Give the backbone structure.
Amino acid sequence: MDNMEEEVFLDVCGLEPPEPLERVLDALANLAPGTRLRMLIDREPHPLYGILRNNRYLYSSRVDEQHRHEILIWHQN
């Protein structure tokens, strides 16, 4: 497996703020170079987007059929 294909999955659905944000920031602090973080959350994490931009992370997001937000996050090169 190519290192760029490695992912860490984090499901924070059902957690009350600020726990989802704390968990994703902890996961990002330990994210190996070339590894992506796939986060699943039951509401759009608006505060997270600014934090990601300010810390040189890129991300893409989509909403699944159950109205959960799936956010893929990776280090900007």
